[in-house]
Design a protein that fits this description.
The protein is α/β, with parallel strands linked by helices. The protein contains 2 helices and 8 strands. The strands form 2 sheets. Strands 1-4-3-2 form a 4-stranded mixed β-sheet, covered by helices on one side.
């Protein structure tokens, strides 16, 4: 089969332990919009206009924090930014908010792309990447 049967990403579903704080990370710090809520689950759906992220609240307190080197699952989620200024703005907003930042904007490999990595309030690794073009 030479032609992919799928066409891009519709949404990413993340299980979070801090539902409101995680939603606030996307809406207040990144400028995303809340699309809707499902109070029964509960869940909050957020979007940047291109992709939707569904934040599902855990039903039980997690017994252990995810470890990218030991657990099978989501290593990180990466979001594209349009330019280097946007990457630096995100870094500044997150730093001013006290967000746990793994590393500040730096070259990805030999460049020109740059990226940074942080943790949203529930501990999921989030990368922001500018392709340098």
């Amino acid at each position: 089969m030479s032609t992919p049967i799928t066409k891009g990403t519709h949404h990413i579903g993340l299980t979070v332990s801090k539902l409101e704080e995680s939603a606030n990370f996307f809406t207040s710090l990144l400028g995303w919009k809340e699309v809707r809520r499902n109070e029964e689950y509960p869940a909050i759906y957020v979007s940047d206009g291109s992709i939707m992220v569904t934040l599902w609240a855990t039903k039980e307190k997690p017994s252990i924090q995810f470890n990218k080197n030991k657990n099978i699952g989501l290593h990180h989620v990466a979001f594209h930014v349009e330019n280097e200024d946007a990457l630096n703005t995100i870094h500044k907003r997150l730093a001013n908010n006290g967000t746990n930042i793994e590393f500040a904007p730096e070259l990805l490999g030999k460049g020109p792309a740059k990226h940074m990595m942080c943790y949203e309030p529930s501990g999921i690794r989030v990368e922001f990447i500018w392709l340098g073009n």
